[in-house]
Amino acid sequence: MRRTALLVSAALLTALLPLASAQAAAADDPAPVPVDRFEGEVPFASQPAEGIFTWGSDSDDPPALQLTARADAPEGGKVLTGSYDISGWGGFTHDYAADAPAHDWSAHQGIRFWWDGRNSGRKIAFELKDGGAHGEASELWTTSFTDDFTGWKQLEIPFTDFVYRTDYQPVGGIDHVLGLTRMWGYAVTLPTGVKGEFAMDGVELYGKADQSLRARVTTDSAVHPVDEGQAAAVRFTVATTGGAAIDEPVTVTYETTGGTAESGTDYTPVTGTLTFPAGTPSGTSRTLHVPTLKDKAAEPAETIPLRLTVTGAKPPAETPQIVIDAHGLPYLNSKLPVRKRVADLVSRMSLAEKAGQMTQAERGAVGTPGDIATYGLGSLLSGGGSTPTPNTPEGWAKMIDSFQLRAQATRFQIPLIYGVDAVHGHNNLVGATVLPHNIGIGATRDPGLARKAGAVTAAEVRATGIPWDFAPCLCVTRDERWGRSYESFGEDPALVESMETIIQGLQGARSGKDLADGDKVLATAKHFVGDGGTAYGSSSTGTYTIDQGVTRVTRQQLEAVHLAPYREAVERGVGSVMPSYSSLDLLGDGRGPVKMHARADMINGLLKDRMGFDGFVISDWAGIDQIPGDYASDVRTAVDAGVDMIMVPYAYQDFHATLVDEVKAGRISEGRVADAVSRILTQKFRLGLFEKPYADTGGASRIGSAGHRAVAREAAAESQVLLKNSGGVLPLKKAQKVYVAGSNADDIGNQSGGWTVTWQGSSGDITPGTTILEAMRKNAAHLTYSKDASAPTDRYDAGVVVVGETPYAEGVGDVGNGHDLELSAGDKAAVDRVCSAMKCAVLIVSGRPQLIGDRLDGIDALVASWLPGTEGDGVADVLYGKRPFSGQLPVTWPRSLAQLPINVGDAAYDPQFPYGWGLTTLGKVPHGGATTLKVLAAAARAAERAGAREAGRALVTRARLIVQQRAGQHITAAVAKPFADADHLLLSGRYGAAVDRLTAAYRAAPRES
């Protein structure tokens, strides 16, 4: 489906338009130019032919359109009518043909049309398509009108009322100028959530392009920081819609007045007029200089607004201001210890300024850019899929720099700390290196590789101006029905702890001394604590079944399973921690389920006091809203519980005001606020943001580079877990004739999973990368691909069927919320067709185990591919034997849904494949029996006593491979339980005990026949 125009968020729509009935045209206006008369001259069609076509978010959302003869038609005999019932987004477009010349609308004042009002009070978005190659590759400009009238009304919209769309651009934006010389048509986005009908007629261009409406004066920036004693340069530019020269003079009268700087003491006042004569080309600039004066006093920043009066054009949207930079104050001295800088700055700040530092807003929700300074915001974030246009490294850096510039207009010029969920690479950025999700990293059992994955992520994130990553997720997943299972390294806290080397990859040294480097970011341990243990059916969030539910554990279980990774994170110096949405029901404490954002005993008492965490705690997305009580109570409870910064994506004004009121009323102590702000500022100083607030793009050339993709390829290869390999089907040989099928063989979106470009992720070619099929083609002399296995299957040496899940994130992916653990009907059919016709290997691309037991006997080789990311070459590397399979299951693979939850250490444990299982394709697999295992056990104990980690791991791995060879596919409960226990013991450093448990599994295993 072509996404010509999406539903525009109410937060992004412009203010209600004061539209009136069309007035009689002035005598010298050009004649109206018809666009649509709806008499049949423009057909209903689809691209690339010119015509009117509908679109929507799913099959039910496109409206039904027809041309209807009506006696009351304002123009002609027919009108466009339609009915709609839209749940997501939907509407219609008139597009000019892709191969036809664009139209020139620049001579006209605006566009007008007749609308049959129903007085519904609903907003209707109206959009123009400007520039670019054709209607589907143009730039989108939008406005809206309100259906608050009854009957036919002619609505006039001047072109100057259209604003550039910031939520979606089909080609990432072009020049951000509504040129009107290359127009491809218009689109109408209809209201959602209500059934409705509409009628429209007579779309036409009207009026003459009045210079005062089409010309505008802009400044190069709304904020101009300058060192004391230097002159600020403010550049004014005159530009016209359509790009024509101005035909009347434009004057800009200016005066320095107001602000916090003192005229004559801090700056030399200026006043005067800049004139752009008639005939001045669009884009011409004039520069105004404002001298500042130097004194010997240490001072905070001071502002000098420029009052402007513009004639002949629209004035700048904001009053530009010069900012004399803060200087001479101790907190600005980079040679002082961070703690002294923090103490000095906090001592100078007002309550409102402190409240601002504790506030984090979503970048798309900031009403006006000036709010950053007005509220002294401490942080902005991009939620999943909240990206700049264009979504490029340069686009990110430019956007974040523009936000940082606004923070320079505050008294102490405290920089923002910008955060993003980069959970498997810089996954919001198109073209970034997308690594396997954590479940795959856990399968590698390679702490060094986890660290390299963190380093790649940090380098790409920081190169776009972002210093803070909401990763890693340290949840211990205990139920694969959870939609966030793939964000976990595994079900064993010992495995999760071993993968926390990723924190050093992200942050560098535990002390934080590397955080200011251009390739490091502040890490976030999330979600504290117990989010992986929520009980199925306990969620109260919408249709979620398990995510954001209740974790019911004893204190001993909490400590042993869910808290252990956080102790390790604190030891590694993680800079921030995010509480979970979930509730904790600590059995025996008499409190019942309590939201984690409200648990002072866990955040203040355990994390900060007992563990000694010295970073800051950031809430999850609107997490405090889930605390019972009114809003003031939510704020008070969360802050008193130890949450230092509150993520209030769309409520930053309300939160700021409420926090200030609560402190003034004495319900939140000033000391608690000072502590929170001190923790936040400490990390900002460590990140070097006061010295370098703007993006350091020196590493941008490494984003998506061959070197970074090589790390992702290595991770993808090591994450592949070979579960079955009867008859040595794998590795494949280049000369073999191979038949490839399955829904996930050639889909970069599916193999990357959720949290890729958008929050939920999506299928298809969403970002550059190599699919598994493309990678296999590089290795195969003879390969046939048939997605649904409908092509003939005779005379092939081997088949590879790549199946599994489509992307999802969080509770949207919960089993029972439209998802299950079964292969789709199409995938099952492809497996059956291929595996009944030839030797076959089935690859499961998924975020969690899939129930495959009913087909396992007919499958020769089975691989858990997890979500390998953009580097499908890594998968092909093990399929074709360039690297041996070495991955191990990070979670237990169940036989049936009824077994869930099932985890290593359970008293009853009879899975399809146990935790830690993973065959190899090494050329020489270790052999031996009980005697060999006895020798290995003795050597393992010696390695344990000597602290020889690598030797101990190697000895246990050898024993594991011997046991797997013995057991084959005869994995009974008597084999599975000690086998899984052994991997937990290995990760806990108990190598001798691990071999002992493997010996027990060996003795329980029947010989492979």
TrEMBL record:
Region forming the signal peptide: 1-26
Calx-beta domain location: 204-309
The enzyme's E.C. designation: 3.2.1.21
Catalytic activity: Hydrolysis of terminal, non-reducing beta-D-glucosyl residues with release of beta-D-glucose
Gene Ontology terms, MF aspect: beta-glucosidase activity; cellulase activity
GO BP: cell communication; cellulose catabolic process
Name of the molecule in the record: beta-glucosidase
